[in-house]
Every structure is written in structure tokens, then in C-alpha cells.
Design goal:
9 strands; alpha+beta; 208 residues; 7-stranded mixed sheet; globular
């Protein structure tokens, strides 16, 4: 009896593909919207301080550039976050299937509208992930009055653009706030109240 052998190059390629899939899946499931209230778990290292509120902040001199986040939005338009320099940028990772995301959505909608009405240089950008269709994401935005754009990222690929050693959005929900130079200034891996969200934004608006 004889057995056919799988070529070694094909076997290695298969293992490499599997590793890529596992890595991507792990990034999305690190804190997959659990029932612990989104308590921070894990970190990417770096010179930052995490307060009792669960919000991590970085001194201005120690901040690193956020990666370029671009692509199609839930409403079918295109967006590139690098065009938003000069504004404080609030990045919120969310999914319509996520209970903590639903809990914090009214606060995001309210603060975004109030800051826009006040003429403040702030841009809100959502990153919608693990929703299989745009319809679910669009319904979420309509239900909670979300008027700012969200990049549609069902596979979580945008989250993998953040380099090691920086504050990463490695949970759902996550919120990162970039300073006016496009650098990562603050992060939380927990659902936010209106007061906590403003506590991440206001100090960056005051920076010169």
C-alpha cells in the first residue's frame, strides 16, 4: 500500500494561513463584549497611566501617531481619518450586537451633537465591527441617533493597524481619543458615560 505525500511547501503555506486567521480572530475576541462591564484587560505597553476610572492617558511628549484608518462607511461613503488632523478625534469601536455598546450609544450621540453645535474642533468616528451586514449597523445608528460616520470593519482589520507599544482598541467597545496632531492621547476599554467621555475630550481641547 502506498500513500501520497502533501508537498512540504503547501503544508507550510496552509499553516501560515491558519496562523493569520487565528491572529485576526484573537484580536476581535480578546474582550468580546462580555458581562464584566468592559473592564480593561491586557495592554499594549507604553508610557501611559491608567486611572481608577479605567481611562488610560499619555503625556503629550510620549504620544505616538495613530495609524491611518480609511475605508467605506456604514452609509456607503468613504472616510480617511488622516484628513482630520487639527481636530480632537474620538474613535469608538462598536457592534450592534454588543450590550455595552448600546448602553453607551446615547452618551456618544449627545456629546457629539453638543460639541458640534458649540463649534468645537472635535470629530467623532465609529468603527463598526463584527456586524455581518451594514443594515444592522445602520439600524443601530438610527435607533440611537448617531449622526457621525462609522467605518464598516466586519473583520476587525482596522483594529490590527495599531502598532504594538501603543494604546490599542483591543476590546469591544473601545474608545480612543487622538489629539489635534493625530496622536493617541487616551483610551478606555469600558462603556462610557457622558461625564467620562467628556473627561477624555476636554483636556485635549484645552491643549495648545
Amino acid at each position: 500500500m502506498s500513500f501520497s505525500r502533501v508537498p512540504r511547501s503547501r503544508s507550510i503555506s496552509g499553516r501560515a494561513t491558519l496562523l493569520t486567521v487565528v491572529t485576526l480572530t484573537g484580536a476581535l475576541t480578546l474582550t468580546a463584549c462580555g458581562d464584566d462591564g468592559g473592564k480593561p484587560s491586557g495592554s499594549a505597553g507604553g508610557n501611559y497611566v491608567t486611572g481608577s476610572s479605567g481611562i488610560s492617558t499619555v503625556a503629550k511628549a510620549d504620544r505616538t501617531d495613530a495609524p491611518k484608518l480609511d475605508g467605506e462607511t456604514v452609509d456607503g461613503k468613504t472616510l480617511d481619518t488622516t484628513t482630520l488632523k487639527g481636530k480632537v478625534v474620538v474613535l469608538n469601536v462598536w457592534g450592534s450586537w454588543c450590550p455595552p455598546c448600546r448602553a453607551e450609544a446615547p452618551s456618544f450621540a449627545k456629546v457629539a451633537k453638543e460639541l458640534e453645535a458649540a463649534g468645537q474642533p472635535v470629530a467623532f468616528v465609529g468603527i463598526n465591527t463584527r456586524d455581518n451586514t451594514k443594515q444592522n449597523a445602520a439600524s443601530f445608528e438610527e435607533d440611537y441617533g448617531i449622526t457621525y460616520p462609522s467605518l464598516f470593519d466586519p473583520d476587525g482589520k482596522l483594529m490590527l493597524r495599531f502598532p504594538k507599544g501603543t494604546l490599542n482598541p483591543n476590546a469591544i467597545p473601545s474608545t480612543l481619543v487622538l489629539d489635534k496632531d493625530g496622536k493617541i492621547a487616551a483610551r478606555t476599554l469600558a462603556a462610557l458615560s457622558e461625564a467620562k467621555l467628556r473627561s477624555m475630550i476636554d483636556p485635549l481641547l484645552a491643549e495648545k
